[in-house]
Every structure is written in structure tokens, then in C-alpha cells.
Design goal:
The protein is an all-alpha fold. It folds into two domains: 57 residues, Arc Repressor Mutant, subunit A, CATH 1.10.10; 133 residues, Tetracycline Repressor, domain 2, CATH 1.10.357. The protein is built from nine helices and no strands. Helix 1 crosses helix 2, helix 1 packs across helix 4 and helix 7 crosses helix 8. The chain is elongated, with a radius of gyration of 20 Å. The N and C termini lie far apart (65 Å).
Length: 191
């Protein structure tokens, strides 16, 4: 097949897939997981059900694709936050602040059924591992510079930070999220 044809087909497939993912995520946010059907997703995207079934076997598969994409975006956002700063403490603060804000934003999407479905998949475990590694690397770098306590392993501190900042999901405002980040950073300072 000519390259132009292949690129056009792939672009079309990506567009259809993205439209289905966005439609399903919107419908689930609006009506809940149990009430969304493939027919509704097809109707909202403007494609036939038969075409939709070529891409996804069911609504759950569409939501898994949406969740994978969201997690990937979040990790990219954290890497970007890390890379925008120069010093070790700035890199750590920027990344932890971004993580807390992501957790705070994600509370809008909390639905017990959706969480139960999506958080048991391997892509979540891989992302959690990558997040821990990213934070642990920053903590080790900051500890080496003397800005973070060195008496606790960076992996342990990373787990502490991630769990502590996960509480941002339940906070009422960005100001309260910023205070949580400050409290978490205070717990990392050397004695």
C-alpha cells in the first residue's frame, strides 16, 4: 500500500477511535457506567454500531482506552513539570504540585463503578510504578543535594508523597491543595 494511503487510513482510524472514546467518557460522566450502551456511543459519534464494534467490543473497552490515554497524559504532564525547572528542589516541588492538582481535578470523574472497572488493569499498575520511579528519582536527587532527608529511602518517601498528595482529590480548593503540598514538602526536609 502507498504510504499516503496508509497514513490516511491510520488517521481515519485514530479519529474514529478518539471520537468513540470521547463520546463514551462524556456519556458515562453524564449518565453513569451502567446506563451507557454501544448504540448511544455510536449515535453520539455519528458512526454505525457495526463500525464501532470493529474498534471496541463493548463500552468497558472504550473506557479502558480513555483511561489509558488519560493516565498517559497525566504522566506526560508530570514529566513536563519536572523538566521545566532547573534545581532539584524546584523540580520536586513542581512535580509534586502537578501531581496534587491532577488528583484534585480527577475528583470530578469519581464514580465507584468506573473506578472499580478501570483501576484493576495492568496499565494502572504500570503507571503507578512509573509515577513512583519518577518521584523517587527526584527525591534521591534532592537528598543528594541536601534538600531532602536522606535517612529514609527515596522509594519510601515517594510512596509517602504519592499517598499524602492523593488526599488532594477530596480538598475543596486549589489553595487547600497548595497547602497540602507545603505540608508534604515540610515532612521531607532534613532534620
Amino acid at each position: 500500500m502507498p504510504r499516503l494511503w496508509t497514513d490516511t487510513i491510520e488517521s481515519h482510524r485514530r479519529t474514529v477511535r478518539d471520537a468513540a472514546v470521547e463520546a463514551a467518557a462524556g456519556l458515562v460522566a453524564e449518565h453513569g457506567l451502567r446506563s451507557v450502551t454501544m448504540s448511544e456511543v455510536a449515535e453520539k459519534t455519528g458512526i454505525g454500531r457495526a463500525t464501532l464494534y470493529k474498534y471496541f467490543p463493548d463500552v468497558e473497552a472504550i473506557l479502558r482506552a480513555w483511561h489509558e490515554r488519560e493516565i498517559s497524559r497525566h504522566l506526560d504532564e508530570l514529566v513536563e513539570a519536572r523538566d521545566q525547572r532547573v534545581s532539584a528542589p524546584e523540580r520536586l516541588r513542581g512535580t509534586l504540585s502537578s501531581y496534587a492538582l491532577i488528583a484534585h481535578r480527577s475528583r470530578r470523574h469519581d464514580d465507584a463503578d468506573v473506578a472499580a472497572l478501570l483501576h484493576r488493569d495492568e496499565h494502572v499498575r504500570r503507571a503507578e510504578r512509573r509515577l513512583r520511579e519518577l518521584v523517587a528519582e527526584l527525591l534521591a536527587e534532592a537528598a543528594q543535594a541536601g534538600d531532602v532527608r536522606g535517612d529514609v529511602a527515596s522509594d519510601e518517601l515517594a510512596r509517602y508523597c504519592i499517598h499524602a498528595l492523593g488526599a488532594a482529590r477530596d480538598l475543596p480548593s486549589k489553595a487547600s491543595v497548595e497547602r497540602l503540598v507545603e505540608v508534604t514538602l515540610a515532612g521531607l526536609r532534613p532534620r
